[in-house]
Structure formats: C-alpha cells, structure tokens
Amino acid sequence: MIIKKALHSIVILFLLSLLAIPSMAHNLWIETSPTGKVGQTQKVYVYLGEYAYGVRENVSEHLEMLGGDVAVWLIKPNGDKVALDTEIGENRFVAEFTPQNEGHYQLVLNVTNAPVVDWREYNLGILKTTFFGTATVQVGSPATANLPSQSVASVNKLVIQPTNATDFERNSPLQFQLTYNGKPLAEQEVVIGYKGKWFKTLYTNGEGQLSLTLPWNGQYVVESVYTEEKAGTFKGDDYEAVRHTATFYIPAK
Length: 253
Known about the structure:
single chain; mainly beta; Immunoglobulin-like; five-stranded antiparallel β-sheet; 21 strands; 47% strand
C-alpha cells in the first residue's frame, strides 16, 4: 500500500510538472529518415512538445501561439535553398522533398512570428520567442564532408549541428558546433534528450564546439536556448528579451 501511494504521488508530481511548463516553452524539432534515394519522395515531420517526456502536442491547437505555420527549408548539396510547403497531419506539420542528386541535404525549420509571451510567473520575463531546428539527410554514398553552419545560419539565427557529415555511431564522439548570427557561441548550455526523461547537459568551449557520445540506440534531440537581452516591440507588444530555441534531430539506430 505504501509503495502504491508513493507511485501515485510520483505520477501526480510528474503531471503537475508538465502543467507548470508554459506550452510554448516546448520545443519544435524535425524528424525524417537520415537517408534518402534520388528520385524518391522523402517525408519530413515537425513536432511540438517535449521529446524526452514523450509529449507531442497537436500542432493545430497551437497555431495562434506559433504565429501561424512553420517555415521549412531544404538546403541542397550545392547550397541552394528551397522553401518547402507544409500541411498539418495528425499532430504534426508535414513536408516533403524529392532529391535529384546524391549528397548531404539539410532541413531547416524556423518560427519567427510567434507572439510576445508574458512568462513572469515562471521568472522568465516578457519574451519574444523564436524556434529553430535542423536535421540532415544523406542521399547515396557521398564522401565525408563538412557541414558548414553558414548555410543554415543564412536561414536561422541560432544553429546547433554536427561539424561533419556523420552516421551517428553510438559510443563514438560526435562533434557539434553552436552558432548565433553565424558566430560561435561560447560557454553555452546544450541539452541532449532521450526517451524516458533522460537528459545530459554539456557546455560549448570557447569556439562554440562540444563533443558528445550517444550511449544507446534510439532517437535523440539536441537542444540549446539562448536569450538575447534586447528589448523591442513585436506587432504592438513590448518585450524585454528574445528567447531563441534551437534543436537538432539525431535519428534512431
């Protein structure tokens, strides 16, 4: 009986902790197959929620808080950028593209039209929020290549991604780069999330880089939040700072 009561209390506390989080403090992240084929349509999914907690919101219920639709871009191996159309399917945004050549493709999402939010009750202040995300797709068997953050930075302000094309081997170090406005972001907190509420917190070095190792098979979402201490006005509402959130999708193995 004591054990059952303790478990019941834990469940209640967990649910309350989710309710205590403002819904738009959730993250947006991309999910897609890490590999593709020339001439074959590839689906791209964008989720809103807390991946490590198993929370995936119904995006259709949060369109107003997102400021409308999300923008999803495809950066081709030659650097060309193409805006992808999105639609809502089930609880997610859906886009697609068809690779025409072999190489490394980068998917980039951003939400910059979200309205100002008053999060003073969470000790975060009055904020303008923006959301960014990245994922990579390898088509064919191209040689190992650098993944310059400049191409993604031309679309997104805050970028977290590997420095090289990788197949995300488990138990092997992966090198990541975090940039803001195209410049390395030093000593910045980065969180790696895994299912079952597992998190690991790391910090970038002076060059905005960090090394992480994935202990288990399965999907991960890498996240970083950077607050720009800059006041302003958006659509008639004043804010004290801009809260940027960036994610990177590591596919399951």
